[in-house]
Amino acid sequence: MSFRSSTVSLGLLLGLLATGQTLQQQLQGVASANGLVGMSVVAVCEGAITDVVHTGLADIGRNVAVNDSTAYRIASISKLVTAIAVMRLHEQSTFGLDDDVSTALGFTFRNPAFPNTPITYRMVLSHRSSLQDGSGYSPFLTATYSSTPPPAISELVTSGGNWYTADMWRTESPGSYFAYSNVNFGILGTLIEALSGQRFDQYMRQEVLAPLGIGGSYNVQDLSAIGQLAALYRNSVPQADDFNGLMPAPPDLSLYVIGTNGLYFAPQGGLRITAVELARVLLCLLGNGTWTNGITTVQLLQPTTVALMTGQEWLYNGNNGDNYYGLFRSWGLGVHRITATPGNDVVHPGVPMFGHAGEAYGLISDLYFDPSSGHGLLFLTNGYTPGNAYAFGNTAFYSVEDDVFAAVRTHAYQPCLSVAVQGSAGVSERLLVNGNTIRWTGTTALEIRVFDPQGKLLEQRSIRPHVPISWPGAWPMHARSWRGGGIVVLTTAPSE
After folding, report:
1. Are the CB atoms for 127 and 323 separated by under 8 Å?
2. 378, containing H or E segment
3. Would the pTM count as exceeding 0.90?
4. What are the structural domain ranges in the chain?
């Protein structure tokens, strides 16, 4: 799949002015109708960011609006990013997918009912390890955050451990049954530390986040703008990250033992990141492991590794797993595989997709993409106001998610999908660019949106037929392609 923005530093995206609502207007309506506190949505079309929409408040008490700099604790999408780190270590031949994880963990990791069945990396990544979030999980998390040093994760998952409970393990044999669980990714976080010799949060920043130009982190102490962190709400009551714009006191990690309890930095749900930054993860997976900012290109994963992650490890057959009310019907290696089964796991009708969803403390998060078309989307909300608790709609997603997906489908995807019908003849000739002056000789007004390489909307302006406009600066611009549905893409030359 080609990326039109792969050799540029700045994209000019021009969209035909609609006679009805714009994406911004429809999403504002969705937020209002569903009583959302704040929301961010990113639409990706043909491998490029085309829309970034924010609404509402990141922090009710301080009256801080959601914007490009708003970071969210994205809940279980964090697992997808953790899986990328695991697969980077796999590319370095530090383990095989079918190796017994006990070797790296340093203790025998077994379902007590199946002591002779090794549990592999493949099983843990695909939630088929037979480990589950039993009654010992929550007390262990409490001890993890309140004890110095944190207890070893072996104390949770092995018989006789101080936090072990028998219901941490399922009755089905490892590899035979899908059961989504957070503790699987606590095991993976511990493995990342054991294999790399680094603390989980530090490894993630160095090996995954920083290469993509992401300032987010699994450690809140790393955030450069704590005042831009969204608080998370249920009924407008803060549930998490309510720091009032002040950095919390740093924890005492002097006795932290690397490779013993990766849950401390929440590989299962603790990544704090902006919507635009998270879109780079989406674009990287959509680009077969490659991400570019228009000047430099990063190969984070090999295409074969992305294929492994998105490949089918589990498919629901009616009795081989917990499908979570129809939402989970297929899984890869750390990747939720959308089958688009009607009434169940539908993001866009009839379109298989890949990604992950999340929910915690009132937040909902979605990241999904379709490699065949180059489309993708992100949805993040930091919670709801009184009387607006989330409810299911026509699919296994919440109705608010269905509404967001529909808005993106109508206003961001349809123009891309129509390119084969509308063709490309003559359009570039009707859009004239000379230096910093743009003239449109078509018959319908256009809207010009200017994004920087990271997808940040810099400026938005309308242009009428035969009425030239001048742009600030002397950016050398040229028409690139006609996408159909009134969408034209312009680019500038890369900055030196």
Report:
1. no
2. strand 375-381
3. no
4. 1-33+418-496
